[in-house]
Write a structure and sequence with these properties.
single chain; about 375 residues; Porin; disordered N terminus
């Protein structure tokens, strides 16, 4: 009976997003617990590891590179590779009153690591929802520029990564305000192409500047990924107040044009993390203004959109917890009624192993008044 229950649970596979990969644990012969609590959520040590180009400052990776006798040639001995296979079973998804086995929902191949001193990469290829696969995160990172704490990244990444990384959340429910596109605008805080500059001070102050296309990660059009002449900008500052509290704020300034009609837009928002074991609280607020997101021209009406999320994570024994709980509240309101959204989610998880978790989640849509139930497991290998 016990084996049957375990097998039954395996059938209830739950879709999830990973940012770090087990290849790093294999490379350094260390437990996932070193960087995650629980995976894929990063601890401070894991944040430092990612920011350092997926290199541990205090530990070498023996025999990681092939000895070629050429100091200008750096070849990884074994390409770091990890696999994620997801699915899930849901009830009442999108108010359908149907149960659905969505398995496999996601197949993801992930790779990342250092390819030369202070030069690293991260990439994953994803097939989801039965569609043809695509590349999402894909960037090269240059660290320690000019012997300083300046880092430079170029490629595809999520605009919101310096705020809260959607790929590292523990819930199936998303951070909705990051995904909002207003009217016919292509701008939101998820994936885009561009460059990112990061600088960290010993005072606990972190600065970020992003310059992005501003139209997501669609396909080429007339030989270009960008579909207009404009570039959009995000600036962000974050400050550690003490070991328990971090506060930050960002500003986004953008333009996008269709048939010579331009939508000027801006976003602004504070964020904070408060953590005292066994509880962590993350909050984000975003205010957005679009002058002409439908590209109407002279008859345009400014659209005001705002939203927030609050996330609380409970780990009863800190890093040693075998189970955890997460509560997530999402809120969005706008001049465009279809964007209005309120929901509350409760997520429970239990670690069978450091890289295998049983989970259950219930989300109640407070706007349309229905609930969605998901159960399953999450694994990485």
């Amino acid at each position: 009976m016990k084996k049957f229950l375990i097998l039954l649970t395996v059938l209830f596979v739950s879709a999830y997003n990973l940012y770090s990969i087990p290849a790093f644990a294999r490379k350094y012969n260390m437990t996932c617990k070193t960087c995650h609590s629980p995976f894929p959520k990063l601890k401070a040590y894991g944040e430092e590891f990612a920011g350092n180009g997926f290199v541990l400052k205090d530990q070498d990776a023996p025999r990681y590179f092939v000895e070629t006798g050429d100091e200008k040639l750096s070849l990884i001995r074994d390409l770091p590779l990890a696999v994620r296979l997801d699915g899930r079973v849901t009830f009442n998804e999108d108010k359908s009153k149907l149960s659905d086995f969505k398995s496999p929902l996601v197949l993801k191949l992930l790779s990342g690591g250092e390819i030369f001193k202070n030069v690293s990469y991260y990439i994953y290829y994803i097939l989801e929802e039965g569609d043809v696969g695509k590349v999402e995160d894909a960037f090269i990172m240059f660290n320690k520029l000019f012997g300083s704490e300046l880092a430079f990244s170029i490629g595809q990444f999520q605009v919101s990564d310096p705020l809260f990384k959607r790929e590292l959340r523990l819930t199936l429910a998303d951070y909705n305000i990051y995904k909002v596109r207003v009217g016919d605008s292509h701008v939101n805080l998820t994936y885009d192409r561009g460059i990112m500059l990061n600088y960290g001070f010993e005072t606990g102050t972190d600065l970020t500047l992003e310059i992005v296309n501003g139209n997501g990660i669609g396909t080429l059009s007339n030989g270009n990924f960008d579909n207009d002449k404009h570039k959009n900008f995000l600036g962000r500052v974050s400050q550690d107040i003490n070991e328990h509290l971090r506060i930050g704020a960002f500003g986004y300034l953008g333009k996008e044009s269709v048939n010579e009609i331009t939508n000027d837009l801006w976003m602004f928002g504070p964020d904070a993390t408060f953590s005292i074991d066994p509880i962590e609280l993350n909050v984000q607020f975003v205010e957005r203004r679009d002058k002409d997101p439908f590209f109407f021209g002279p008859t345009a009406i400014e659209i005001k959109t705002r939203g927030a999320f609050a996330e609380i994570v409970y780990r009863p024994e800190g890093d040693n917890s075998n189970w955890y709980a997460v509560g997530l509240y999402n809120w969005v309101e706008s001049n465009i009624a279809s964007l209005d959204h309120k929901s509350a989610s409760l997520h429970l998880g239990y670690l069978l192993a450091r890289n295998i978790r049983l989970i259950g989640e219930y989300t109640h849509n407070l706007t349309d008044k229905y609930g969605v139930l998901s159960v399953g497991f999450i694994s990485a290998f």
